[in-house]
Task: inverse folding
């Protein structure tokens, strides 16, 4: 577990730190390799001190589970949806070899000095204070490689990519022979239309019809449904997405309307090379 004060150990300047790519199926602890077959993966970074032999793990987590970060709760007698979408970096001693190796990846990708590690540790704290919300979706104009990105995801994979880039800027040496792929949950949409923040939509002087429509949309995605309710919700969601081509999107305390385009929703496992 991590230090209670949130600190990251200080390495000696002359230390050589090995950096490891860590990847395993989402919810591997519960479902094993099930989601791995669909390339729905969780990413993290491992470190090993050459001087002490100690291992460490850094990963970025949703604080209230993935479902709660992706969709809100609708509470009785409250108009505005309630979001539990906070995220944060976690740094702790040890690498769970069995977890990463059994159904995933544990492979060295870079090396750096203790000086670089300490600079990275400072940056992680700053990054953690700057980006505090987990964002599951990546919204693009089309599947084309250079298509417009309307909204970018902010998740475990993006944390790893930001950290790799920072390490490269600090002077870490990467082994680009290692192939690195990342899971992205994509929505394809025309240009998004801004709808307003929670107060503007759900407040006393808000847009009642829009508020009701947003609540109806998220009601289909509510947790703890029976199998019958879930089946009916899936059919309704399909109609909303594939027929009506509607999606209400929440980003940085604001709501947006997405006019979805084919193929609407897709899970991809894209290769993003190590920095060089």
Result:
């Amino acid at each position: 577990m991590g230090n209670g004060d949130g600190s990251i150990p200080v390495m000696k300047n002359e230390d050589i730190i090995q950096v490891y790519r860590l990847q395993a199926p989402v919810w591997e602890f519960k479902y094993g390799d099930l989601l791995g077959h669909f390339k729905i993966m969780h990413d993290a970074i491992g470190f090993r001190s050459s001087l002490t032999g100690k291992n460490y793990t850094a990963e970025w987590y949703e604080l209230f589970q993935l479902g709660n970060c992706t969709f809100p709760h609708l509470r009785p007698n409250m108009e505005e949806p309630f979001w539990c979408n906070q995220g944060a970096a976690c740094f702790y001693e040890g690498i769970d070899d069995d977890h990463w190796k059994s159904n995933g990846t544990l492979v060295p990708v870079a090396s750096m000095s203790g000086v670089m590690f300490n600079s990275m540790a400072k940056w992680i704290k700053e990054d953690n204070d700057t980006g505090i919300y987990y964002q599951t979706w990546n919204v693009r104009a089309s599947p084309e490689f250079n298509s417009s990105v309307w909204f970018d995801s902010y998740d475990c994979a993006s944390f790893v990519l930001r950290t790799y880039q920072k390490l490269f800027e600090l002077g870490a040496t990467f082994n680009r022979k290692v192939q690195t792929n990342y899971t992205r949950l994509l929505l394809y949409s025309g240009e998004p239309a801004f709808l307003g923040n929670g107060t503007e939509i759900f407040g006393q002087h808000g847009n009642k019809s829009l508020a009701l429509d947003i609540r109806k949309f998220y009601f289909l995605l509510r947790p703890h449904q029976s199998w019958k309710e879930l089946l009916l919700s899936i059919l309704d969601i399909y109609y909303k997405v594939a027929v009506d081509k509607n999606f209400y999107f929440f980003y940085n305390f604001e709501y947006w309307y997405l006019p979805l385009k084919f193929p609407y929703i897709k899970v991809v496992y894209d290769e993003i090379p190590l920095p060089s």
